[in-house]
């Protein structure tokens, strides 16, 4: 009887030992799975471009897609259709003070920035509505400015869509968007 009790205790200890090894192995495998499933970086991250021009803070908030081997203009971005000039949410531009763009006075505030790309000319649009997904809620009646610009062909392609606010002097800023082989820009004058 004493031998059978020792034998049963040995089996019990061995069984418990194996369960602990399985638990440790499963826990280790679970940790490896969590490490392997690291969150992926967005393909079109949110970005910002900003500058001070004569005490006027100009701020651009946009999503920056990359070319990733795709045809951009006339492909991913259709000609002659409204575009958020970025990805996902509409690009927005804000001014701390009133500005002039072309012959139009723009009051201080935040605006949706849209474009209609064309082969020869682009239409730039400032819209009162800035908080929208793509151009789903875009209404032309909310435009405060539409103007045409000629796109520049870049000498070398730009992989990720990029905005810049250049400040040649205190009165003037130049806002530029570059992507793939195209750059568009326009001048903003402080009031």
Task: Explain what you see.
- This protein is of the alpha+beta class.
- The protein has 2 domains: 1-38; 46-190, no CATH class.
- It contains 1 helix and 10 strands, in the order H-E-E-E-E-E-E-E-E-E-E.
- It has a 6-stranded antiparallel sheet with strand order 1-2-3-6-7-8, with no helix packed on it. A 4-stranded antiparallel sheet has the order 5-4-10-9, with no helix packed on it.
- The longest helix is centred in the N-terminal third of the chain and has 35 residues, at 2-36.
- The N and C termini lie far apart (102 Å).
- Mean pLDDT is 86; it is low at 8-14 and 21-35.
How is the topology of this model organized?
Elements: H1 2-36, E1 46-53, E2 56-63, E3 91-95, E4 99-101, E5 104-106, E6 109-116, E7 122-127, E8 143-149, E9 152-166, E10 172-190
Antiparallel strand pairs: 1-2, 2-3, 3-6, 4-5, 4-10, 6-7, 7-8, 9-10
Characteristics:
1 helix, alpha+beta, 2 domains, globular, four-stranded antiparallel β-sheet, 191 residues, 10 strands
Based on Cα principal axes, name the global outline. globular
Uncertain segments? 8-14, 21-35
Separate helix tally: 1
What can be said about the biggest beta sheet? 6 strands, antiparallel
Give, in spatial order, the strands making up the sheet with the most strands. Answer: 1-2-3-6-7-8
Cα(first) to Cα(last) distance is: 102 Å
* Helix-and-strand structural type: alpha+beta
Integer average pLDDT: 86
Q: What is the gist of this entry?
A:
By secondary structure, the protein is α+β, with helices and mostly antiparallel strands. It has one helix at 2-36; strands at residues 46-53, 56-63, 91-95, 99-101, 104-106, 109-116, 122-127, 143-149, 152-166, 172-190.
């Amino acid at each position: 009887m004493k031998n059978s009790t020792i034998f049963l205790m040995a089996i019990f200890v061995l069984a418990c030992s194996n369960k602990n090894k399985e638990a440790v192995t499963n826990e280790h495998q679970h940790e490896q799975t969590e490490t392997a499933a690291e969150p992926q970086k967005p393909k079109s991250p949110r970005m910002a471009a900003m500058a001070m021009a004569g005490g006027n803070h100009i701020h651009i908030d946009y999503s920056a897609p990359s070319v990733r081997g795709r045809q951009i203009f006339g492909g991913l971005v259709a000609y002659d259709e409204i575009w958020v000039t970025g990805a996902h949410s509409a690009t927005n531009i804000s001014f701390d003070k009133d500005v002039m763009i072309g012959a139009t006075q723009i009051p201080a505030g935040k605006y949706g920035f849209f474009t209609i790309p064309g082969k020869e000319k682009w239409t730039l649009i400032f819209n009162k509505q800035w908080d929208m997904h793509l151009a789903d809620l875009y209404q032309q009646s909310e435009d405060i400015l539409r103007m045409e610009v000629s796109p520049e062909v870049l000498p070398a392609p730009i992989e990720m869509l990029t905005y810049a606010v250049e400040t040649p002097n205190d009165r003037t800023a130049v806002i530029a968007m570059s992507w793939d082989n195209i750059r568009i820009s326009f001048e903003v004058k402080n009031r």
